[in-house]
Amino acid sequence: MARAKKTDSPGFPAISIRQPNADRIIRGERHRDTRSRPTHFRGWLLLHASRTFRRKEAARGEEDLERGKLLGIVQLEDCVKDGDDWAYVWKSPRRFRQPIACRGHYSIPFYVPKKLVAGTPAAKVTPGKLEGEIRRRAPHESELSRTLLRSSDPSRRSG
């Protein structure tokens, strides 16, 4: 039995952002979005409006904005340090004529099947990609690797 071929791309990259910021980014009114973590991702992303929102946005009457949908595409141009946080720098937003219902995800990026965005401006651009590797070690990892190296070194064995 033949196995299904794995595609080169897992799908189109997307980022989930809470309203009203997602709407402001896709309208081109907001060019920077502050996050607690940096990313090495650059290029075109689908912009997903998160289903969740803060209570203060609901109090301002912004609960009628699209939520739980892909609003359009935007380029993530850069990620720069901004005080204790990181600012994602956005450019070239393009709103879809009709938002696409889609479940979001916390990771940056998460991937959406390409067939979901066929016939939209996203089908005409090259998806963004990670530039450089993100390698985060647990605090104990370097100590653990030194211990393992010491124990496997034949010159250190007694006997």
- CA-based gyration radius: 21 Å
- Which H/E pattern describes the elements? EHEEHEEEEH
- Strand-residue proportion: 25-35%
Average pLDDT value?
76
CATH superfamily: Hypothetical protein
Question: How many individual domains?
Answer: 1
The CATH class assignment is Mainly Beta
| Biggest beta-sheet profile | 7 strands, mixed
CATH topology: Archaeosine Trna-guanine Transglycosylase, Chain: A, domain 4
Helix content: 10-25%
Q: Separation of termini?
A: 54 Å
* Structural class by SSE content: alpha+beta
- Per DSSP, the total helix count is 3
Taken from the alpha-carbon principal axes, the silhouette is globular
Topology of helices and strands:
Elements: E1 12-17, H1 21-26, E2 32-35, E3 41-49, H2 55-59, E4 69-82, E5 85-101, E6 110-112, E7 129-130, H3 141-152
Any descriptors?
159 residues; alpha+beta; Archaeosine Trna-guanine Transglycosylase, Chain: A, domain 4; seven-stranded mixed β-sheet; disordered N terminus
Question: What would you note in describing this structure?
Answer:
The protein has 159 residues and is an alpha+beta fold. It has one domain: Hypothetical protein (Archaeosine Trna-guanine Transglycosylase, Chain: A, domain 4, Roll). Helices cover 14% and strands 35% of the residues. The chain contains three helices and seven strands; from the N terminus they run E-H-E-E-H-E-E-E-E-H. It has helices at residues 21-26, 55-59, 141-152, and strands at residues 12-17, 32-35, 41-49, 69-82, 85-101, 110-112, 129-130. Strands 1, 2, 3, 4, 5, 6 and 7 form a seven-stranded mixed beta sheet that branches. A hairpin with a 2-residue loop joins strand 4 (69-82) and strand 5 (85-101). The protein is globular. The termini are far apart. The model is unreliable at 1-7 and 133-150 (pLDDT under 50).
